[in-house]
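Summarise this fold before class:
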Amino acid sequence: MNGLNVAVYVEGYIYPDSAPKDKPVPATIEKLKKSGFTTAILGLFHISGKSGAGPEAMGDIYFNNTLIIADGSYVGAPEWPGLVGQILGGTVTTICASIGGGGVSDYEALAEIYKANNNSFDNTPVQKNFAAFRKTFPAVSIVDMDCEETYDEPSFVAFCRMLIDLGFAITFCPYTMQDFWVSSLAQLNDSSPGSVKWVNLQCYSGGYGNSPDEWASAIANSIENFQTDQFIIPGDSAETPAAVNSLMQTFEGMGCVGGGVIWTLDMILKQSSDMQSYSNAIVTGLNATTDAGAGLG
């Protein structure tokens, strides 16, 4: 990874039907491209675990509360795929799609689908729908795994491998269960070296107190010859730029830290329109400079 990865999660403000009327998606995208953020992480996507037909089908993909892919076809807002493609440019070099979050059951659904299909995702609606996702959103190169429930390692690793086979790279977004994440990384590194690009480590809310060097040490101790340089991207909530800067200062000089990530752009825009103050807070806190032209995917 060249340069500093300055990332931000983006929620409903990036989707036409949920963006506030005074903050239309095209305007938000133009500001994002000038913000200093190098990675936009769209979130959160969800996997339906309800059986039945139509919008209740197992394996359908939602963006927040909106059904976007069902039965192998895109059914969301017609203009959204084009808008997502427009995010690339300016300082933004990478787009990710994040699956999961707190208080949801996406990984429970994935485990159920996996086990019901003889411990495989082959020929399941999940595989079919993510193949459609890849085709619909070619600008999205990475899937971010925000697993905060149902830490079922076999189905989790199999899901990641399915996504890799479809052409996606992977990032992790942990806040706890270090052994689960390190073991999953080891398995993916064994089958597809380099497929996991970095770790978005939650250092806020339930992850408060997490230290990137502790996670890097756990990885290095478990996976022989794994390079953890710039592999951990610590995250903070968008409370204030000063708070972000203060947290990032505690990670200054850690060789494993490759940037920082903010949860979320929506929170920033609710408070002000000054995205750059948050990206700057990461950069100055880490006492580093960005290479916005470097591809991180």
